[in-house]
Amino acid sequence: MKISEMLRVYFIMGSNNCTGDPLEVLESALKGGITLFQLREKGANAKTGKKKKELALKMKELCHRYEVPFVVNDDVSLALEIEADGIHVGQDDEPVSEIKEKCPERMIIGVSATNGQEAVEAVKDGADYIGVGPIFSTDTKVDAKKPIGLEGVSRIRKLVGDIPMVAIGGIKAVHASDIIDAGADGVSVITAISAAASPEAAAREIKEKIGE
Ligand SMILES: Cc1ncc(COP(=O)(O)OP(=O)(O)O)c(N)n1
Ligand SMILES: Cc1nc(C(=O)O)sc1CCOP(=O)(O)O
Ligand SMILES: [Mg+2]
Residues that bind Mg(2+), according to the entry (predicted)? Predict the structure, then answer.
C-alpha cells in the first residue's frame, strides 16, 4: 500500500487518551477501518519503559492482525526494538538525519510541521510523510501551536509537491472531506475516535466522509 493511502484514516492514541482498555479501543477502531495507527504514549506508561514496550508489542500485533501498519511516536529506540513499521517525530524530537542512520529503509519516517518552512525542510531531510497542524484548536496536545486552518493545508500542499501529507489537530468527521479537498491525503485524529462511544462507528464515519 502507498503511504498516501495509509494516511487516509490515521488514528493516534496513548493509554491517557481513553478511559477504558486501550487495546479494546484500538481493536474497535481497527474494525471501523483505520488505515494507520500511532502509539503516542504520554501518560503514566510513558515513564516505565517496560509497560510501554509491553503495550507497544500488543498494539503492533493487533494492528498486524488487521493488516494495518504500526507507528511509534517520538521513541526511536522503542520503534527499533519492537520492529515497528514507522516512527513519527516532531520539530523538538530526534532529527531525521540521525533516524535515517539507525533505522532500516523499510521503516516509515513521519515528521510534524506547523508551517510551510518546517514542511519544506522535512521534505528536504527525507521524511516519508508530513503531519501538518494543528488545523483547528485542540486540547489534546498541551504545546500545540496556533491553528493553521484549511487555508494552511492548501498553502503547505502547494509548497511541498506530492509528498504524502496528513492533517492533524481538532479534526472531527464533519471536517474530513474539506481537509481532503484542501490537499491532504488523509486525516489524523485522537479524540474523535478514542473518546467516541463507539470507536468503530467513529472510524467508519470518518472513512465514509473521506470517500473510501
Ligand atoms: C501524524 C502526526 N502529526 C503530528 C504529530 C505531532 O508530533 P510532535 O510535534 O512531535 O508532538 P507530540 O505528538 O510528540 O506531542 C503526531 N504525533 N503525529
Ligand atoms: C498529537 C497532535 N499533534 C498536533 C500538531 O499540531 O502537530 S495536534 C495533536 C493533537 C490531536 O488530537 P485531537 O485529534 O484530539 O485534536
Ligand atoms: Mg514528538
Answer: 74, 93
- The average confidence (pLDDT) of the chain is 96
- In this prediction, residue 211 has a pLDDT band, given cuts at 50, 70 and 90, of confident
Percent residues over pLDDT 90 in the chain: 93
Question: Widest CA span of the chain, in angstroms?
Answer: 43
* Binding pocket residue ranges, ligand 2, CB within 6 Å: 12, 112, 131, 133-134, 138, 140-141, 144, 168-171, 189-192
Q: Give the mean pLDDT of 198-210.
A: 97
What is the CATH classification number for the domain harbouring 67?
3.20.20.70
Catalytic residue among 40, 155, 204, 207: 40
Question: Which range of residues forms the domain containing residue 43?
Answer: 3-210
Atom 8 of ligand 2, nearest CA residue:
169
Short-list 203, 157, 161, 166, CA closest to 8: 166
> Per the residue annotation, which of 8, 52, 60, 112 is the catalytic one?
112
Looking at the structure of the chain, the number of domains it has is 1
Residue 45 has pLDDT above 90, yes or no: no
In this structure, the residue with its CA closest to atom 5 of ligand 1 is 112
Report the residue among 10, 34, 40 best suited for mutation to probe ligand 1: largest number of ligand atoms under 8 A from its CB: 40
- Which CA distances in Å does 185 have to 14, 43, 110, 123? 23, 29, 14, 16
